[in-house]
Amino acid sequence: MQCHEVDYEIVGSSMPLLEVELDPGETVIAEAGMMNYMEDSIGYETRMGDGSDPDQGLMSKLFSAGKRMLTGESLFMTHFSNQGADKQRVAFAAPYPGDIVPVNMAEIGQRLYCQKDAFLCAALGTRLSVAFSKKLGAGFFGGEGFILQKLEGDGMAFIQAGGTVVRKELNNETLRVDTGCLVGFSEGVSYDIELTKGMKSMLLGGEGLWLATLSGTGSVWIQSLPFSRLADRIIAAAPELGGSRQGES
Prior knowledge:
With 249 residues, the protein is α+β, with helices and mostly antiparallel strands. Helix content is 18%, strand content 46%. The protein has one domain (7-248): 4-Layer Sandwich (Double-stranded beta-helix), CATH 3.60.160. The protein has four helices and 17 strands. The longest helix has 22 residues, at 227-248.
C-alpha cells in the first residue's frame, strides 16, 4: 500500500509540537495518547493495527498487535482522517523534552528500525512491526535493545527522542553508541552489542558495561538525553528536593 502524502510543520525546539496537515481523505496513524489538538473536520478512530493492509484478517491483526505488545506498546492505534473538504491539521507532542524527527522513508530505503518508545506517528500505509535482533550478543545483553520496532513504507514517519538528536551517516563504517542513546537506524546498518573493553573501564568508567555497535552504510539517529537517564537523575535528587522544601517552609 502506497503511503498517504502528508505535509507537516514542527513548532518549537526544546519541547516541540508536530502539526500534520491532511488533505481531504488523508490519514495519519499515531500511538494512543499522543494527540495534542485537531481541527474541526478531523475524525479519529481507534483500531487494531496500522491499517497498512486493508485486506488483513482478524487473526493476522491479532498476531501483529500481540507482537507490538511485546514492546510495551498499546494493542490499538489511533487513525486521524480528514473528513472535510479543505485541508485540516492535527497536532502531536512527545511526552518529554526533546526532539521530533521527521523521516522520509522513501529516502532511506523504506525501512527504519527504532527503539520501542521512539515512534510518534506516520502517514497511513506505514507498516509497524517488531524486529528481533539477529545477534545473540544483543539478545542476551542489550536489554530493551533486543526488541526493536520496524517501520516500513514510502511516506513520512515521525520519531521522538530526548534532548538533541544527531543524525550520523555511515559509509561502510562502524559507530559505537551508548545503548540508551541510540534512537534508530536505517536499512543497511547492522546492530550488535559489545562488552566494554578492560576491567577498569567496566568498573570505573561510568559509561555502562555495554555499547551498541552499528556497522554498514546508512543513517543512524542518536539522542543526547535518554529519558531513562533523566528519570534516574530526578529520582536521585528527589530526597534532596524534599528536604529543601521542608527547610524553606
